[in-house]
Amino acid sequence: MLTKRIIPCLDVKDGKTVKGVNFENLRDAGDPVELGALYSQQGADELVFLDITATLEKRGTLVELVRKVAANINIPFTIGGGISSIEDVSACLNAGADKVSINSSAVKNPALIDSLAREFGSQCIVVAIDTRNNQGIDLVHTHGGTKATAIQTIPWAIEVQERGAGEILLTSMDHDGTKAGFANVLTSSISHRLQIPIIASGGAGNMQHFVDVFTQGAADAALAASIFHFKEIEIPTLKHWLADQGVSVRTN
Q1: Hey, which residues does 147 pair with through a beta bridge?
Q2: pLDDT along the chain (252 residues), means of 10
Q3: In whole angstroms, what is the distance from residue 149 CA to residue 172 CA?
Q4: Closest-CA residue to 103 (of 121, 90, 88, 120)
Q5: Across the strands, what pairs with 170?
Q6: Using the 8-state DSSP alphabet, how is residue 247 labeled?
Q7: Is 130 designated active site?
């Protein structure tokens, strides 16, 4: 059985880690490189760094941040934010990232997914899907969650896989920062339709929520931010508890 992954997420703005609720009201959570190094030491399986205003401000991902992260951690990490071309991806991978995450650029130009998968291999390409429910319909959002689209989430996830993405980072904007649990119904709907791994994001508040997203949501990995940043849950404690609950995880 494949082990389930625990992935801390570091949302970066102006060089600082930030966290909010429903993508708003951001507060400082510390230095991203220092936090990444700490999570690596604690036994996180991977890390995700998202420059959350890169697309909104129309600037590239901070390649210098990638270099610093790569020099200080020894686990795989994904970088996202403002990535929109083969050149952007090449720069991030050459600076030390293991994977890149694209969202707005993929929605704007779906063929970009095909191009990146051919150029770098599907294993490097993560497509992030920020989704919010609108009158019973799950819709894709772009530009850091600020722009709604008419694209329905599940069909888009299917298309993303068909175009060559190696993984999907699924963030429920309705659950983000609420600590009320992951969007397990939507996550399960997508997980059971697709063959590629699904990383569930948005809503982690306690250790039971992780059990639920792995069992009810059928997620391959669970991503969380504030509960780790503000030391509400320690990664070693979480992973040992998950193992005790029968969830297959890698423990130190």
Answers
A1: 142
A2: 91 74 55 90 94 59 83 94 91 95 95 98 97 95 89 98 98 90 98 98 96 98 91 95 96 76
A3: 15
A4: 88
A5: 129, 200
A6: -
A7: yes
Per the residue annotation, which of 130, 138, 176, 212 is the catalytic one?
130
Q: Name the H helices within the chain.
A: 32-42, 63-72, 86-95, 104-108, 111-120, 153-162, 184-191, 207-215, 226-229, 235-244
Rounded distance between C-alpha atoms, residue 20 and residue 158, angstroms = 29
Residue type, 197: P
C-alpha–C-alpha distance, residues 99 and 225, integer Å? 19
Tokens of 140: 């894709």
DSSP string, 40-106: HHHT-S-EEEEETTTTTTT----HHHHHHHHHH--S-EEEESS--SHHHHHHHHHHT-SEEEESHHH
Residue with structure tokens 């779906």? 110
Which among 11, 51, 212, 220 is annotated as catalytic?
11
Q: Any idea where the domains of the chain sit in the sequence? A: 5-244
Residue pLDDT, tens place only, 116-140: 999 999 999 999 999 999 999 999 9
Judge if pTM exceeds 0.90.
yes
User: Does domain 5-244 bear CATH number 3.20.20.70?
Assistant: yes
3-state secondary structure of 192: coil
Q: How confident is the model over 192-226, as pLDDT tens digits?
A: 999 999 999 999 999 999 999 999 999 999 999 88
